[in-house]
Amino acid sequence: MSKKEIVKRYVLCVVSLFISALGVAVTKHGELGVSPISSVSNVLCEKFPAFSLGTWLFIWNCALILGQVALLRKNFKPIQLLQVPMSLLFGVFTDIGTILVKNIPAEIYAVKILLVIAGTMILGLGIALAVIANAIMNSGEAFVKAVSDVSGKDFGNLKIIFDILCVITAAVLSLIFFSFRLRGIREGTIIAAATTGLMVKLFTKLLKDPMEKMLRA
């Protein structure tokens, strides 16, 4: 792989981060919950609004990176530390996205659902571009891969379990923080969980070949 292609792949990775973060911001604006991987951060943001959603996402991602270090130990490759600045960028991009969408009217329930669907599609596009870039994994998927490497279990099955555990953790935190009421996790979280993977597959199928040609040009 040439240096030029490597640079292109990392640029695409950063672009994918912005698109994914925008997807999270759009979904968040619908106030019906966010994707499973962001659900814990969203609940923490609801409880402790002094820190923005982007800040909580950065903290959560750093916790997942530490989890990888603990699991892999000597097998944790230094290149994976790039997840830290990538996570910081994702947090900053999420806060920027929140500012960009804040004036979209979202009082009507139907509009809230549309925002969740639109946000999920945008998030799916961002993840698909990250997959195509193949530069550095996001901390959530990298954590699941670390568990897979250590346990020998299937990555896909572990990813499903990880997403479910994220939602359960967010729900438990919400019940503790808000007197047994759910906040920051609602039907939008279920919609995102059910459709994000489908969006990733669709966009990857549509974009992989043309994007690979562009990266190798």
Main beta sheet: strand number and arrangement? none
Helical segment count: 8
Percent of residues in beta strands = under 5%
Measured between the Cα atoms of the first and last residue, the distance is 11 Å
Q: What does the radius of gyration come to? A: 17 Å
Shape: globular
Low-confidence stretches: none
Summarize the model shown.
This protein is mostly helical and 217 residues long. The chain is built from eight helices and no strands.
General description of the model:
The structure is a single chain. The chain is 78% helix and 0% strand. It is mainly alpha-helical. It is globular, with a radius of gyration of 17 Å.
Secondary-structure blueprint of this entry?
Layout: H1 3-29, H2 36-47, H3 53-72, H4 83-101, H5 109-133, H6 139-151, H7 155-177, H8 187-216
Helix pairs in contact: 1-4, 1-5, 2-3, 2-7, 3-4, 3-6, 5-8, 6-7
Pick out its properties.
217 residues; mainly alpha
